[in-house]
Design a protein that fits this description.
heterodimer; A: mainly alpha; about 65% helix; B: alpha+beta; four-stranded antiparallel sheet; about 35% helix
Chain lengths: ~400, ~1050
């Protein structure tokens, strides 16, 4: 006695959000049934494994049939095959494109190529996310990348319109595309403590201030490529460290402003030249693609680590950077104020974001990684198990 | 030359990639009608082509217009090789031929290929210009309206019911022609689809002609079926009920739009007609006598004499063309029949005067009638006949098939006579074919119809009542036996009716119709199924046919017994919507009977089921019997509670009162949530009067003869087991196979139509009847369980019109397909309505609203105290609670504003909620409701589908025509498409999509009376192949929400057309 065929088709397509999540998470039908059987509320319906199995199979089939449309979300709204109420469509798309921060951390800045895709099984075993789910997320990145690569106009807006995503998710995708395009190195051990959201914030800053789009908003790739002219101009900042007078002047201005305001004043004074050199050198080297890739590593090595080893609190660091930036304006012989502001504005906010918090200050970096990388099981929200029909 | 068909190809979208090199497509379109073909230009290298073609014009006979579909083929241009077909769209242009329906077809249609399924969409515009044709000998029947709905369509009034129409056409099946050996599967499928489309067009035209001959203008309850007889060909046959329908003008009584089930029929009377009809009938102008050609009677498009009556001026402009062209009688004056329609009416009366006796078959495919139409119901009549198929030699003279059906119908007629009835209602026909053996079945309900309606042929109850001033027949009337008590056709226990005490009623009543709206019912109904498998030896030809026909009576008997047992177990006494299906396979027969059980207050309380053991005094056996008896008694008690069956003792004793209350309650549901004070007081008065009469009534009828089941053989044991294995639906669910669940009225607009198909492979070769029965029963039960689980978010909800079809597609396969609609309902209707109402009403009116409960509060308290069982229906109890609540608030004297009342009502309702998911449910309900109105906002019009004839919470304002579609899908890559389930899942979704697209293109937003008539699935997993045929039908309609203002209809319509129009 075998059920040869078993289908259920509703005029309004029935989709259970819980099953959808299980499907997205890459559970097999059998595993999904196991999860569902123990989930709450099932006893209420006296659902036997058979019934849940049949339902799960149906839902999985529906999702598979829908997947083709989800690859091109604008189609979902005007296709005729499935009658899905608009708010459900939005949910389907948003969930489909939602990714795991742990996963994206692994591929952030990597080339979205076949090679990377082949390594996904390693990522899968490392993160505990199923390979199926990893592949979906990776393909999503790649798809978004391909579509917006050639488009004019603001990146976030393009992503939002072509994939009908929420603003937040569109911004995250913009960050992923931006990182993939510039191939920023994020996988080094020293950067492990940073979350995807930290990087996404930095990407937002870079896109907003350093790309071509920051000056001209109607060119191709405007938000994806860094402004070459600006990078060229950054070389001029070198004067801040090469010119001995300027360096001393800068230092004294900063020290005057900081004196008495911080516990780590001595350390700041001693380290000033070192830190300044670090930051300006990063700026000067950004014309090389290789150095662009190492941007975040450099920030950590050249600035964050020295400060941390001197036990600066983040308030100290903020104070220092603010005065460091502002004092440059007081230097008479320093003419590159605009470039300086454009550079330091981003550097400041990136470092603020990347600087480890006070509470975790005393613990070694590896400890921070563990804390931040706890995989939070997704919450289904109040409407969790309810499928809504029109 | 009476018609010009115009088509314009606007654009395509989401086309498939046909050129692998460029990943693009060079698409063009062929538009074909009859033998004429037009082509668009090639739109190169684009997946979203904008052809924006000229208007392609076809000048054709209206006969062709009715028969032929417009065929649109999308192709990929190829310079060097043959053009590749992307897919096709068939558009049935019949709706355009009826001026009342759609005027233009415009929208996105899925491009369908029988091998690849839906491949993109195409935007098409189609129009028809009809010319006048006064040729009386014409072969076309344009303008005759067809409805699948088996009741009088909601925005019409039946001026006349003419009776039964039937027709069948036959042809060779292209799949079995010699040419099929050399052509591709695609070509074969397309030939078949086209042929069937042609045949059903032809059939519809022929039926239309018959209707015109009878003087009607519409077919209601149109039921069309295909018999794929394999080698011997295809038979397309249809039956229906010819009627003369008048469109109710938009301004007419709003109640007329609402379905009797949601709003039990109040007297939908048009007062002008009362005045105008009477004199006309007495006049008898001799000049009007002549051939009964409707066209003759409709020469005047000039304003009728009664120009003062409102509808005339409104309609004269709109109906000019169709009056002269199409045979719609009396529609020139809408609801009020003018003088010029008088003679016609008279003529028709003469024609129908001879009433039913003269008609060959006094059959009606309707299942739902206006109150008073049905006088008595005798019971189910059915006939089956086993035939050996032979090749149809001459397709133009399908005499054999005609003769077969004729035979069966005669039998039905004689059965009805035996029951003392002159008519058969709820009539339907079906077949089951396996190889060359075919079972023809027909079933209906023998009935006596009101002679008054028959004489006049008029279903317009409202005006009838007024004219004759007769007391309307008692609501229990239909239960009374029509046959002679001393000469009963079958053994039955008769008792005096529990309502009127005047007439005899049987102990149980089986019918194929819907529950009459006026019927008094206790508690809720439930779906009852009897399932049966019988093994049969494989055989050929006549031997096979004989063995099948020998098995049939036993199967019928067993199914009947099962139904009876299950009915008793649920403490119910009547079945409605009974449908018995018997399917043949090579080595077995399947029988499935479905019906909705109810407790009719007019019929006696069913006795218990008593188990009798073997005569031998075996102790263990006796114990066994006892334990079974206990289980059965428990199950009965549980069922009584679950279905709220509280045989209303008090009411049963005084039928007048019960009747009165029940009617008033149902009226309440109709429109105003709060009845007029006058009615209300009448209600209570009659109750108080009843107490005096109590003593006089005959109380002796309490003794019931228990139904005895003897356990003396294995069969009986099996029976009892099958009785007890039926699991009740989970809490919050009800199910029925009729239009709506008796006892549930307060539907919300949340609904979900679905189709579910299961195929089971019997692995075990040597099965016994018993084990097979168990497998089949479990299969049906599990399917139901799955449905309940899937639809759990709609609780509280009712599965309505649950329609099971079984088939034995292959040797060891059993296929069960279900189509039904899940509709959610509110538990506290009145409280909520009150809230809504209070919000909308001004403060001034509020005073009034609060006034009457004040007057009543004393009485209502006494009602509660006198223990007048506030439980006999849910509605009653909530209603009483409302009164109590109101009285309460007034005594406090604090409630002055509407807001307060509302909040109070709300708080009570939320505290009383007992559904398992109170909060979540209400939230999801609300969101459903708010989003449901949408459709204009998105690019795709939301199209609702339901097998019922109405949509709760809405008014149907227009019928756009019948949807009757036939699709074939085949695959040679079954595994790649997700196996058989994946294949069928996609196909059913595609069929839904195509139905929705056609409805939207007609300007509609729903399909009512939807049904999947055929779902033939064949597979060959070894060859990685599968094929499926699906036939669906329904009525495309435009609905507006009840809450919408009067202006919205036009708005909705334009928005529907607009969103789908060319961009």
């Amino acid at each position: 006695m075998a059920v040869e065929l078993d289908v259920f088709v509703g005029n309004t397509t029935i989709m259970d959000e819980e099953v959808y999540q299980l499907w997205l998470d890459g559970y097999t039908v059998n595993d999904a049934v196991k999860v569902r059987m123990v989930s709450e509320g099932m006893e209420e319906y006296e659902a036997s494994a058979e019934v849940v199995m049949s339902d799960t199979m149906d839902q999985y089939r529906t999702f598979q049939m829908c997947e083709r449309l989800l690859h091109n979300p604008t189609k979902l709204a005007n296709q005729l095959l499935f009658q899905i109420p608009p708010h459900r469509q939005a949910m389907l798309i948003e969930r489909y494109y939602t990714f795991d921060d742990v996963f994206v951390r692994e591929v952030l800045g990597k080339k979205l190529s076949k090679g990377t895709k082949k390594d996904l099984d390693d990522v899968s075993s490392k993160t505990g996310i199923t390979l199926k789910s990893c592949r979906r997320q990776f393909d999503n990145f790649k798809r978004v990348f391909k579509v917006v690569e050639e488009l004019k106009g603001p990146l976030v807006e393009n992503i939002r319109q072509n994939f009908i995503l929420s603003d937040k998710l569109a911004r995250d995708y913009a960050a992923i595309v931006f990182f993939a395009n510039n191939r920023f190195e994020t996988g080094k051990r020293k950067l492990q403590y940073l979350t995807f959201q930290d990087f996404a914030f930095c990407a937002g800053q870079l896109i907003k201030n350093w790309t071509v789009g920051a000056v001209d908003n109607m060119v191709e790739d405007m938000d994806v490529d860094l402004d070459k002219e600006f990078l060229q101009d950054l070389k001029e900042l070198k004067i801040l460290i090469t010119d001995k007078d300027l360096l001393d002047q800068h230092k004294s201005l900063v020290c005057t402003a900081l004196r008495g305001k911080t516990k780590v004043y001595t350390e700041m004074e001693t380290n000033f030249k070192n830190l300044s050199r670090g930051l300006v050198n990063i700026a000067a080297k950004l014309t090389n693609t290789k150095d662009v890739r190492d941007f975040f590593i450099d920030l950590v090595e050249k600035f964050i680590e020295p400060c941390r080893s001197d036990r600066w609190a983040s308030a100290d660091m903020r104070l220092y950077l603010t005065h460091y930036t502002n004092s440059a304006h007081l230097l008479d012989t320093f003419k590159y104020q605009v470039v300086w502001d454009r550079y330091m504005g981003v550097i400041k906010s990136c470092i603020f974001k990347m600087y480890p918090q006070m509470s975790t200050f005393s613990t070694p970096l590896s400890g921070i990684i563990d804390q931040r990388f706890v995989h939070v099981k997704r919450d289904f929200g109040p409407l969790g198990r309810l499928s809504i029909f029109l | 030359m009476p018609g010009k068909l115009k088509a314009k190809i606007v654009a395509g979208r989401h086309l498939p990639v046909m050129d692998r090199a460029s990943d693009l497509t060079d698409a063009f379109v062929e538009v074909k009608f009859g033998n004429t073909t037009f082509k668009t230009d090639v739109y190169p290298k684009c997946l979203n082509p904008q052809w924006n073609s000229e208007w392609f014009k076809f000048e054709v006979d209206d006969e062709d217009l009715q028969d032929e579909p417009l065929q649109i083929t999308v192709l990929d241009h190829d310079t060097y090789s043959a053009n590749d077909a992307i897919g096709k769209v068939y558009i049935d242009i019949d709706p355009l031929l009826c001026s009342e329906a759609a005027s233009v077809i415009s929208g996105w249609f899925p491009i369908y290929d029988t091998i690849h399924g839906i491949r993109g969409e195409i935007n098409v515009l189609v129009k028809v210009d009809l010319f006048n044709d006064l040729n009386r000998f014409r072969q076309s029947s344009c303008g005759v309206k067809f409805f699948c709905t088996t009741s009088i369509p909601l925005c019409y009034r039946a001026a006349m019911v003419h009776g039964f129409v039937e027709e069948l056409v036959v042809n060779e099946d292209p799949e079995y022609q010699w040419i099929d050996r050399i052509r591709t599967p695609r070509a074969s499928n397309e030939a078949r689809q086209r042929l069937i489309s042609l045949m059903s067009g032809e059939l519809q035209r022929k039926i239309g002609l018959k209707v015109l001959e009878m003087g009607g203008n519409a077919v209601v309850g149109y039921l069309q079926c295909f018999d794929l007889e394999g080698e011997s060909g295809i038979v397309v046959r249809a039956i229906g009920t010819a009627c003369t329908l008048d469109k109710l003008s938009a301004g007419a009584n709003a109640n007329a739009y609402t379905h009797p089930n949601t709003a039990p029929a109040s007297n939908a009377c048009n007062s002008p007609s009362k005045d105008s009809k009477e004199p006309v009938f007495s006049e008898d102008p001799p000049t009007a006598l002549g051939p009964l050609t409707p066209l003759r009677v409709l020469p005047s498009s000039s304003p009728p004499p009664f120009s003062s009556s409102k509808p005339c001026s409104r309609q004269s402009s709109s109906s000019d063309t169709d009056l002269s062209l199409t045979p719609k009688m009396g529609m020139g004056s809408g609801g009020s029949v003018g003088k010029e329609a008088g003679p016609l009416k008279m003529l028709l009366r003469q024609q129908t005067q001879t009433a039913l006796e003269q008609r060959e078959f006094p059959f009606f495919t309707l299942t739902c009638f206006p109150p008073g139409f049905l006088v008595h119901v005798g019971g189910v009549v059915s006939a089956r006949s086993v035939k050996l198929l032979d090749r149809i030699h001459n397709p133009d003279e399908p005499e054999t098939r005609d003769a077969w059906w004729e035979e069966i119908r005669q039998e039905i007629k004689s059965h009805a006579k035996a029951l003392g009835c002159h008519a058969v209602v709820g009539y339907s026909e079906s077949t089951s074919i396996c190889e060359e053996v075919c079972i023809l079945s027909a079933a209906g309900t023998a009935a006596i119809l009101n002679p008054r309606y028959m004489r006049e042929g008029c279903l317009d109850i409202g005006s009838g009542d007024h004219r004759f001033d007769e007391p309307s027949p008692p609501s229990c009337g239909f239960c009374h036996i029509p046959y002679d008590e001393l000469n009963m056709p079958f053994p039955a226990q008769l008792t005096y009716c529990y309502q009127c005490r005047r007439q005899k009623v049987p102990d149980v009543l089986f019918t194929t119709i819907d529950l009459p709206t006026e019927a008094a019912v206790s508690g809720k109904g439930c779906l009852i199924q009897a399932r049966l498998c019988r093994l049969k030896k494989k055989a050929q030809g006549e031997v096979n046919a004989t063995s099948i026909s020998n098995l049939l009576p036993f199967m019928e008997y067993e199914l009947h017994t099962q139904l009876m047992n299950k009915l008793k177990l649920r403490s119910m006494n009547a079945l409605f919507g009974l449908r018995i299906q018997i399917s043949i396979g090579e080595n077995m027969l399947l029988g499935l009977a479905s019906a909705t059980g109810v407790y009719l207050s007019a019929l006696p309380t069913p006795g218990g089921i008593q188990i009798a053991g073997k005569a031998s005094g075996d102790l263990s056996n006796e114990q066994h019997v006892l334990s079974i008896q206990k289980r059965i008694n428990d199950a009965m008690a549980k069922n009584k509670e679950m279905y709220h069956i509280n045989p209303p003792k008090l009411f049963a004793l005084d039928p007048e009162v019960f009747h009165g209350i029940n009617m008033e309650l149902s009226e309440e549901a109709a429109g105003s949530p709060i009845p007029e004070p006058k009615q209300r007081s009448r209600l209570f008065r009659s109750q108080s009067e009843s107490s005096d009469e109590l003593s006089e009534l005959d109380l002796s009828h309490g003794k019931k003869d228990a139904f005895v089941l003897e356990i003396d053989d294995t069969d009986a044991v099996e029976d009892i087991h099958s009785l007890l294995t039926d699991a009740p639906p989970p809490a919050g669910f009800y199910s029925c196979n009729t239009e709506v669940m008796p006892g549930v009225y307060n539907w919300t607009s949340g609904l979900q139509m679905f189709t579910s198909v299961r195929v089971l492979r019997l692995s075990n070769a040597n099965l016994t009847n018993q084990s097979l029965n168990k497998i089949f029963t479990d299969m049906c039960e599990n399917l139901l369980k799955s449905l309940y689980f899937k639809l759990r978010s709609m609780i509280p909800c009712c599965l309505c019109h649950v329609n099971f079809t079984v088939a034995v597609p292959e040797d060891e396969l059993i296929q069960v397909a279900v189509t039904a609609v899940a509709m959610s309902f509110d538990k506290e209707p009145i409280l909520e309505k009150l809230g809504d109402r209070a919000v909308f009403k001004g403060a001034g009116e509020n005073e009034d609203q609060l006034q009457f409960p004040m007057e009543l509060c004393a009485e209502s308290a006494s009602v509660a105290i006198s223990n007048l069982t506030a439980k006999f229906t849910d509605r009653c109890s909530t209603w009483l609670e409302l009164i109590r609540l109101k009285a309460h608030t007034i005594r406090r004297g604090s409630v002055k504003t509407s807001r307060r009342t509302q909040s109070l009502a709300r708080s009570v309702s939320s505290s009383e909620r007992c559904s398992p998911l109170p909060e979540g449910r209400s939230r999801s309900l609300r969101s459903t409701r708010s989003s449901g109105g949408g459709g204009g906002g998105t690019a795709v019009t939301v199209v609702k589908m339901t097998p019922l004839s109405f949509l709760p919470g809405t008014r149907l304002i227009k019928y756009l025509g019948i949807i009757n579609m036939f699709f074939i899908r085949e695959t040679t890559s079954l595994r790649e498409e997700g196996g058989v389930s994946g294949f069928l899942h996609t196909f059913i979704a595609e069929v839904f999509a195509m139905v929705r697209a056609h409805v939207a293109a007609l300007g509609g937003n729903a399909v009512v009376s939807y049904s999947m008539k055929e779902c033939v699935f064949m597979e060959n997993p070894n060859k990685n192949q599968a094929q499926c045929l699906i036939n669906v039908s329904g009525d495309a309609v435009v609905f507006v929400r009840d809450t919408d203002q009067e202006a919205t209809p036009t708005l909705i319509h334009t928005s529907c057309g607009g969103t789908d129009g060319p961009t």
